[in-house]
Amino acid sequence: RLMAEKIGIAVAGTHGKTTTTGMIAQILLEAELDPTIIVGGVLPALDSNGRYGDGDYFLVEADEYDNMFLGLQPEVAVITSLEHDHPDIFPTEADYWAAFADFVRLLPDDGHLILCGDDPGAQKFRRQLDAGNVDVTTYGIGEEAAAVHDYQALDIRPNQLGGSDFLVEAEGQMVGLARLRVPGRHNVLNALAAIIVALDVGVDFNVIRTALANFGGINRRFQLIGEASGVTIIDDYAHHPTEIRATLQAARQRYPGRRLWAIWQPHTYSRTKLLLDEFAGSFAEADRVVALDIYRSRETDTLGMDTAVVVNAMNHPNAVHIPRRADAAAYVLDRIRPDDVVLTLGAGDGNEIGQWILDGLKSR
C-alpha cells in the first residue's frame, strides 16, 4: 500500500487541501527531513507536484474523488473542510460524509486527526464521529470561534507581503508569530493545520515560521499570471462557491480599492446544478462578472443546466454570460482599465483567458 514503511501524513477536505499540503511540504523541506511528497498542484519550491525522499515522512494530498484517499495508510490526517461535492460520485451528502468517515478509520489507534473547528461541516462531522483512540486536534480563528479550539490564530493583521500576520496559540499557551505571503482568512486556517502537523512531527517553530513566510503558493491557487498597463492578472482553481468567495475576499485583502473582474468557468453540469443557488450568491465581492459556458469535463448529460441559468439567478448588477473564451477575453480587453484586477476562476481551461488578456494588453 501507498505509504508503507513511511510515516504517512494525508491532507483531505473539500477545500484547502492542496495549499495546506503545499505548506506542510515547504516546512518539511526547509526542516531538511527529505520527505516524499505528492500534491495536487505544482509547488514552486519543487517545480513539480511531487518528489521521492529517503526521509521518514510521506506527505500526500488525499483526494476524495472516486474514493481514491481510501487507498492510503496515514498516521496523521488533516480534514480542512467538509461540504458536499462531486455529486457524480457521491449523489447525497450522506454518501460524501461516509467516505470521509471511512478515511478517518484508516488511522491507527494512536493516530492523529487534525480538524478545522471553524468549518461548519467539519464541526458536524466531529460531533458524529466515533474517533476511538485517535487523538483529535481542532483549530480555528480565535476571534471568530464559537468555541475554544486546541490551536487558534489570534490578532490577524495584513502585512507588507500581501498576506497575513497572526499569533498562534496552543491550548491557551502562546506559540509565536506566524507570517504568510498568501492572502485570505482561508490561508490562515490552512497555515494553522500545517503548523499543527509540523509541530506534531517535531519541527521547531522558528523553522515553521520561516518556511511559511517563504511559501509563495501553489500554481493555479491565487497565482499571479502577470501585470501589464496597470492591470493585474490572477488565476485560481476555485470551482466551488465556498472557494470562489474565499478567493474574492483574498483579492479584496491584497488589492484594496481596486476594481475586481471575476471570469468564471463553471465546472461540470452536476456540480453546477447541485450548487446553483450557492454559485449565484458567490460573486458579491466582484465588481464585474463574466461567466463562460460550463466545462463538462467527464460528463455528457447536461442535466438541463446552462450558465445562463446561474447568471439569471445572480443578484449582481454587472454579470454577463459569454459562452466562448475568445469572446470573453475580447469583451474584457475592450472594457478593462488601469488598476483593474482580473481573476480567472475554475478547474477547466478558462484560465487560458488570463494569458490572452495579458498578451492583449502587452500588444497595445
Secondary-structure map with pairings?
Elements: E1 7-12, H1 17-30, E2 36-43, E3 48-51, E4 57-61, E5 76-79, H2 93-104, E6 112-116, H3 120-128, E7 135-141, E8 151-158, E9 164-170, E10 173-179, H4 185-200, H5 205-214, E11 223-228, E12 231-236, H6 241-254, E13 260-264, H7 269-274, H8 276-280, E14 288-291, H9 307-313, E15 319-321, H10 325-335, E16 341-345, H11 352-362
Parallel strand pairs: 1-4, 1-5, 2-4, 5-6, 6-7, 7-8, 12-16, 13-14, 13-16, 14-15
Antiparallel strand pairs: 2-3, 8-9, 9-10, 11-12
Helix pairs in contact: 1-4, 1-5, 10-11
Polypeptide structure, described:
There is one protein chain. The chain is of the alpha/beta class and 364 residues long. The protein folds into 2 domains: 7-214, 3-Layer(aba) Sandwich (UDP-N-acetylmuramoyl-L-alanine:D-glutamate ligase), CATH 3.40.1190.10; 223-362, Protein-Tyrosine Phosphatase, Chain A, CATH 3.90.190. It contains 11 helices and 16 strands. The strands form 2 sheets. It has a 10-stranded mixed sheet, sandwiched between helices. Strands 11-12-16-13-14-15 form a 6-stranded mixed sheet, with helices on both faces. Strand 8 and strand 9 form a beta hairpin. The radius of gyration is 20 Å and the shape is globular. The mean pLDDT is 93.
